[in-house]
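Fold this: Small ribosomal subunit protein uS13
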Amino acid sequence: MARIAGVNIPTNKRVIIALTYIHGIGRTKAAEIVEKLKIDPARRVQDLTDQEVLHIRETIDADHTVEGDLRRENAMNIKRLMDLACYRGLRHRKGLPVRGQRTHTNARTRKGKPKAIAGKKK
């Protein structure tokens, strides 16, 4: 089992698909990495040599923000918005949808389970 960026990559999958198991690398970035290193996209991770795995690891470390660094960066961006107390930051703080969705109905993923309001009858 290959270990890249602190993630165990599944060995029986194609290289492009296996690289998407790393947070911050999707299909497009995985395809770019494989193309840059001139690795056949149809090859499986178990067929890669140690040298090729090392090249993939070095390329990801040099050119891409992944895993813990990316998560930390996203968390800091949200924290910055909350500290600024801008509209988006207030929505994050209150746990409401940030991008303009309606909240009268729906928005349950963001708001959580419905809470009954005492004495509210029409």
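The mean pLDDT is 91. The chain has two domains: 2-66, 68-111.
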